[in-house]
Amino acid sequence: MNKSVDRFYLPARILHWLMAVMVIAMLFIGAGMVSTVGQAHAWLIAWHEPLGVAILVLVLVRIVVRLTHRPPPLPADLPDWQKHAATLSHYLLYFLLLLMPLLGWSMLSAAGYPIQILGGLHLPPIMPHNLALYTVLRNAHSFFAYLLFLTFLLHLAAALFHALIRKDGVFRSMAFGRAGRRPSIIDKEGTEP
Predict the structure, then answer these.
(1) Which tens digits make up the pLDDT trace of 65-123?
(2) Which of 45, 137, 190, 193 could form a disulfide with 107 if both were Cys (CB 3.0 to 4.6 A apart)?
(3) Plot region of 31 (φ>0 → left; ψ -120 to 50 → alpha; else → beta)
(4) Per the domain annotation, does 78 fall within a domain?
(5) Which range marks the domain in which residue 157 is found?
(6) How many Å is the maximal CA-CA distance in the chain?
(7) Cα distance between residue 135 and residue 41, in whole Å
């Protein structure tokens, strides 16, 4: 009797939930930055920049983990369009999580602002100082932030769909705690393979 369940590799699960918290914080900090002036604005920037750098580093680590440890398969009875949508949404999330920090870094480089991390440590500029380029990059950063927020909400909705409606083990495969088996590994007669 096989009671093991397909779960994501433990470092992948840790990175997933850590980055989820960081991305939520980043989205709220970013929204606060564009609507705040004064001392609060400077405080938000002081958090936004190093958090963006941390997300960039973690997404690179996460991509390596994903490439070296296959994710568990989706349930066999999941419609093909949902499997394709899941694959595409994951690629889009990885792309946006990589793009957003790079856009922010490029934008600040073009504006001539250093990115300060860990006290006095600054990242080198990756774009030439150019205010026209800064404007284009800032608009792109804003656009892709909205796209990231929308993609994040769709990912959350899909996770809740699997956890609360399908109850098919997909959510459990990324969660912590006691592993259960996926209903999809039970054959038609109701017995385990």
Answers:
(1) 999 999 999 999 999 999 999 999 999 999 999 999 999 999 999 999 988 887 778 89
(2) 137
(3) alpha
(4) yes
(5) 10-177
(6) 67
(7) 19
